[in-house]
């Protein structure tokens, strides 16, 4: 949820149905290498300091989104109290926008995400885990799409709950699912876990990035278990390879 409270957005929460995430077995005591492998497997995320997830570089992805064929009817505000400056741009297989990153902490209540840490906290997300639970913003990298409006309706572009998004900040690439719906007039928001993985301060009250974040949402894509980040990375890498290899 953005720092300023959003107005209600139509539509009910959507269940992303599929198999549950099976936890990875723990490493044996004293096995440092195994511990490192287990930490990577559990999140599907590159180890700290690695610039990207998967095999496609940030530079290759950004090279495909240099020019904007605007699909939105107007532009979005990077913040609800800002000026409209961010268009949603169209390509054959994806849409993209270049904006800021506000930290969304909605979903399951955790030490990082609750009413004390985030005054705008809500205990639900628009889209759910494979077993019907709100997402855990502190653990699950997800992206927030703007609410459907006359500016743009994400579903018209083949974007849906659980859809795969490549999020790029500097030389870092993160694959995330579409997990929540935000205000109708603002864009540029992702979960606590997404911010943290990109090296952005994830504090929901004071963190985030003012600019420099690119979101590439792949059309007609969907993970059946948004909480399984390894699965999101696997699918995201496949889509990214096709995206950079296309015309």
Automatic annotation (TrEMBL):
It comes from the Bacteria. Residues 27-56 are annotated as: Disordered. It is found in: Secreted. Residues 33-44 have a biased composition (Basic and acidic residues). GO terms for molecular function: hydrolase activity. Its main location: secreted. Keywords: Carbohydrate metabolism, Glycosidase, Hydrolase, Polysaccharide degradation, Secreted, Signal. Residues 1-27 form the signal peptide. InterPro entries: Chitosanase_fungal (IPR009939). This is Glycoside hydrolase family 75 protein. It comes from Streptomyces marispadix.
């Amino acid at each position: 949820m953005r720092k300023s409270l959003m107005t209600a957005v139509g539509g009910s929460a959507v269940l992303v149905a599929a198999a549950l995430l099976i936890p990875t077995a723990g490493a044996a005591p004293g096995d440092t290498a195994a511990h490192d492998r287990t930490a990577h497997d559990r999140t599907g995320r590159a180890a700290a300091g690695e610039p990207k997830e998967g095999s496609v570089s940030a530079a290759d992805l950004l090279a495909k989104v240099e020019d904007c064929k605007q699909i939105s009817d107007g532009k979005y505000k990077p913040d609800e109290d800002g000026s409209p400056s961010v268009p949603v741009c169209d390509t054959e297989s994806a849409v993209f926008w270049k904006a800021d990153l506000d930290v969304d902490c909605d979903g399951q209540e955790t030490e990082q995400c609750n009413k004390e840490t985030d005054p705008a906290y809500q205990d639900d997300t628009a889209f759910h885990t494979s077993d019907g639970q709100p997402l855990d913003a502190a653990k699950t990298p997800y992206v927030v799409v703007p609410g459907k409006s006359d500016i743009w309706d994400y579903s018209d572009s083949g974007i849906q709950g659980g859809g795969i998004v490549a999020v790029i900040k500097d030389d870092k690439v993160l694959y995330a699912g579409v997990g929540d719906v935000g205000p109708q007039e603002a864009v540029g928001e992702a979960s606590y876990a997404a911010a943290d993985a990109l090296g952005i301060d994830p504090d929901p009250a004071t963190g985030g990035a003012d600019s420099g974040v690119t979101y590439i949402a792949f059309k007609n894509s969907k993970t059946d278990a948004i909480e399984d980040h390894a699965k999101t990375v696997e699918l995201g890498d496949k889509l990214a390879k096709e995206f950079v290899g296309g015309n």
